Amino acid sequence: MEREEIFQYVKEQYGTEPEYLWKKDPDSAVLRHKNGKWYAIIMAVEKKTLGLEEDGKINILDVKCDPDLVGMIIQTYGFLPGYHMNKRHWITILLDDSVSEAKTLDFLDMSYDLIDSGK
């Protein structure tokens, strides 16, 4: 799934616009819930930083996840512990088509709902 497709989805679903907060990383975007809390981050990171063997950068999506599911989910290819986030509550989804669009959007919706409920 492409970044632009995610941005289009969250705009239609939640009225969210990406926020670009970091001058040193101008392509990284935060998606903020209407309550002000982050529910997703999209960024490009070096593959080796994530423990992947290839060189180059990859787009990733960090989303909040039910802590009871994290251990199981990160056993599946395309999912990793949350990059630069609390690894008990956040997961990283590789945006390289290894995770289906439907599954990516399901996790994005879960993250939005978890932020909404304050869990």
Short description:
It contains 3 helices and 5 strands, in the order H-E-E-E-H-E-E-H.
Report on this structure:
One of its GO terms (molecular function) is DNA binding. This is MmcQ/YjbR family DNA-binding protein. Keywords: DNA-binding. With 119 residues, the chain is an alpha+beta fold. 30% of the residues lie in helices and 24% in strands. The chain has helices at residues 3-14, 67-73, 101-117, and strands at residues 29-32, 38-46, 57-64, 79-81, 90-94. Strands 1-2-3-5-4 form a 5-stranded antiparallel β-sheet. Strand 4 (79-81) and strand 5 (90-94) form a beta hairpin. The chain is globular, with a radius of gyration of 13 Å. The mean pLDDT is 94.
Task: List the SSEs and their pairings.
Elements: H1 3-14, E1 29-32, E2 38-46, E3 57-64, H2 67-73, E4 79-81, E5 90-94, H3 101-117
Antiparallel strand pairs: 1-2, 2-3, 3-5, 4-5
Protein name: MmcQ/YjbR family DNA-binding protein
Keywords: DNA-binding
GO molecular function, one term: DNA binding
